[in-house]
Structures are given as structure tokens and as C-alpha cells.
Amino acid sequence: MFNIIKEKREKILETKISASLLGADLSNLGQEAARAVKLGADWIHFDVMDGCFVENISFGAPVQKSIRENALMENHFIDTHLMVERPDSQIGFFAESGSDMITFHIESKSDTDHTINMIHRRGIMAGLAIKPSTPAESVFPFLEKLESVLVMTVEPGYGGQGFLNYTLPKIKEIRKKADEIKPSLMIEVDGGINNDTAPLVIAAGADILVSGTYLFNARNMMDAIYRLRNNNG
Length: 233
Ligand code: DX5
Ligand code: ZN
What we know:
This protein has 233 residues and is α/β, with parallel strands linked by helices. Helices cover 36% and strands 19% of the residues. The protein has 9 helices and 8 strands. It has an 8-stranded parallel barrel, surrounded by 7 helices.
């Protein structure tokens, strides 16, 4: 009996892999999203860049809507990462475009508490992202309301960058605080995740591993996903 409960708990807490479409063949986004979920990705990570909060412009709500409607099933999970200066203006569009979770930056021009409420009012999970140099404590006042905190492990704006090791203690600090006040909080890590860095972030307390370049460039994506998920060093 206890073993069954333990197994179920481990299953629930199993590391999840979120495939970042920024690392995919951008001329084939729908097929790439479908390929990732077919080969074992738990979530699809959709990076939205506005050319203001970060230098780049990536893709917006109409593109996500088309992927949702034409390439994914209803039960596939879309994790929208807003790297935009004014997240409030985008929430309605993404709510209509099939986001299951919307993550916005604490450094953006928004009232954090109000933006979390806006997301929740749409029946969507709320995530709060922090850049590598933003301290862990900045998210503490919001932990109780959030479903997830996304720790950027590279500077936001580009795929294919090297993992910043100095972000690791921050993951631990957030996990420790969350265990005290919001044990169900998920910690997502984003940037430079590969077979070498996965065990480090898992050991630090990450639950969701976002990966773009490593997954979409892998010769065997199914194997790469399996190894990321089960890599405990
Ligand atoms: C970076 C994005 C990431 C990025 C991760 O600004 O938020 O999601 O796509 O890509 P890799 O895995 O290539 O670092
Ligand atoms: Zn991202």
C-alpha cells in the first residue's frame, strides 16, 4: 500500500520536460510542436518576445492559436513565456489562443499582483519569471498565489546560450521557501538546459526543464527527452 502511494507521489513529482519552440525549425512550427509531444515532451514552451523587453521579436498569439488548433490536441499543455514589457496587454490574446499557463516577468512594466489575478480570472495557471540577476526574495511575496516560478538560467532574448551556473543557489532558495509556504509550487528553469546541466537543476529543486536547442537539434529527440527527465547525475 505504502509503496503504491510512494510510486504515485513520485509519478506526480516526476521532472517535466517543456520543449521550447524557439529552438525548432521555425518554418515548420506546427509539425515541430506535434513531433515534440509525440516523442515525449510534457509541455510546449512558447517564447513571446516583443523587441522591447528583449531585443528580439519572436512570435505572437495568432501563431500560438494556429499551432493549438492545427497541430496539438486539446490535452496538450501550452506554457506561454511572455518576454514582453507590458504583459497585461497580451493576456486576453493568449487566453483566447490556448495557453494553459502564462508566465510573465517580474521585471516587466506591470503590477505583479494584478497581472497574476488577470491570468487567474481567465482560468489559466500563472507563472512568474525572473532574470538571472534578479534575487530569489523578489518572488517570495507572490509564491502563495502562483502555480510556478520560472528561473531564467540565461539572459532572456536568445536560444542557444550557455547555462549560467550562478543561478543554481537561487533555485534552491526558492524551493526552500516554497516548501514552507507553497509546497505545490512548480519551479521551471529556462536556458542552456542539456544533458550536463539537467542534473544540476534537478538537484537544486527544478520540476520543469525548458529546453530548445538541445532537444530540437538532438539526433534522437525521444532519447534526449528521456535522458533529460531521468538524469540525476
Ligand atoms: C530564451 C528563452 C528560452 C530559450 C531556451 O530567452 O526564454 O526558452 O528558447 O533555449 P535553449 O534551450 O536553446 O537555451
Ligand atoms: Zn522561455
